[in-house]
Amino acid sequence: MTIVATGTAATAPAAVPADRGVGPMLRAWRERRRVSQLELALRADSSARHISFIETGRSRPSEEMVLRLAEHLDVPVRERNALLLAAGYAPHYPETPLDDPALDALREGMERLIQGYEPCPALVVDAGYTVVAANRGVAMLLEGVPEKLMTPAPNAMRLTLHPEGLAPRVRNLREWRGHLLAQMERQLALYRSDRLRALYEEVAAYPVPEEEPDGEPAAPVPYFALPLRIEHEGRILSFVSSISTFNTPMDVTVAELAIETFLPADPATVKYLRTMEA
């Protein structure tokens, strides 16, 4: 079963208020990336003097220069549009709703991709962790989760950490919770997103048991990444997650999509998934 949510991707406001002007915004991104004016100038085939003039507002950068500096500073696509607007130019990157016919091929491709990982869980989320597609492996793990957490649109962070969601089944909840919160904190350090901040404050406030849930001891496997250890039908399954994004996206919606796959982390999980597949 595939779950697909339609509509636009999550809106994440620019990292710096646009009314400060493009110069201060570019300086903020440069400092965030820990790049000197000279280094940025060399990357962008400019001069440190010109970069300084842009940042202080003494020089108005061309549209091409804004895009070039944003590229070398690895500025997210949505924030590149914000930089252009602050400099007095039109946005360069469109924001196409995910249910737009123009993205039919993309949606179909993502569905085929996550279905190809079955029986391993795989899902697609937007910038606010809203689940826009999921495969049968995810549906298997979500069995028994209350309907109120699934509607109107399921949120991956809420589903995982809510005390009525998957949290009671996660056998290393403290570790996994810390990993997820740190992931959100890294995002919040880059983006001024009220929606993401509200989600972070909500899930961070969920109660955490003083001790991990009772369960089978972890198998003596040398994990190469932090596993998600979760109970399903009396068995403890272990997964390691991998997150993929699109290469050089030219659309805001596409840029903010992420495909997360959960691969078995021990032989017991591999064996169990094969029986489920059979």
From TrEMBL:
Source organism: Streptomyces bungoensis
Q: Which InterPro entries match?
A: Cro/C1-type_HTH, Lambda_DNA-bd_dom_sf, MLTR_LBD
- Taxonomically, the superkingdom here is Bacteria
SMART domains, per database record: HTH_XRE
Question: What is the protein named?
Answer: XRE family transcriptional regulator
The residue ranges of the HTH cro/C1-type domain are 26-80
- GO MF terms held by the record: DNA binding
TM region positions: none
Which Pfam families does the UniProt record give? HTH_3 (PF01381), MLTR_LBD (PF17765)
